[in-house]
Amino acid sequence: MGVTTPRVAADLGWALGRVTRAHLRTVQEVVSDLPGGPRGYHVLASLEEGPPATQLALARALGVDRTVMTYLLDELERAGLVARRPDPADRRARHVLLTDTGRERLCALERRLRDAEDELLSPLDAGERDQLRALLQRLAVGSDGPAPCQVAEEIQAGGAC
């Protein structure tokens, strides 16, 4: 679909929406066989970054309803990608851990996602891609908007521009 006017092409919302939709399609293709799709990927990526997280902390960090997180973790655990263990400090809480299989799968997904993103961003040179990623990350981290999963669901459902 071509841009009909320069005014539309200059609109930040239009540009972000168009790139976001293209990115969501790309990501969905890469993670389609992962339990939970993009959410499953975000769980694996979050677990790789730090100390064991409780299910509740993980749900809050990713903006996922805790009930939905339980079902998602059930699927990821059945696939051998995560394991849940009682929290030694609080037996009611469960730590979620990335398994070796989960770590291998995450590394493979990250490579495929980076390749897919590079293709999506191919009109930019490597330095511009890195700069765009850094700027968007800075905006996203400083934003108090809705959780990424909520935004993705709204866009996929056609509820956002």
From TrEMBL:
<protein>
    <submittedName>
        <fullName>DNA-binding MarR family transcriptional regulator</fullName>
    </submittedName>
</protein>
<dbReference type="GO" id="GO:0003700">
    <property type="term" value="F:DNA-binding transcription factor activity"/>
</dbReference>
<dbReference type="GO" id="GO:0003677">
    <property type="term" value="F:DNA binding"/>
</dbReference>
<dbReference type="InterPro" id="IPR036390">
    <property type="entry name" value="WH_DNA-bd_sf"/>
</dbReference>
<dbReference type="InterPro" id="IPR036388">
    <property type="entry name" value="WH-like_DNA-bd_sf"/>
</dbReference>
<dbReference type="Pfam" id="PF01047">
    <property type="entry name" value="MarR"/>
</dbReference>
<dbReference type="InterPro" id="IPR039422">
    <property type="entry name" value="MarR/SlyA-like"/>
</dbReference>
<feature type="domain" description="HTH marR-type">
    <location>
        <begin position="9"/>
        <end position="141"/>
    </location>
</feature>
<dbReference type="InterPro" id="IPR000835">
    <property type="entry name" value="HTH_MarR-typ"/>
</dbReference>
<keyword id="KW-0238">DNA-binding</keyword>
<dbReference type="GO" id="GO:0006950">
    <property type="term" value="P:response to stress"/>
</dbReference>
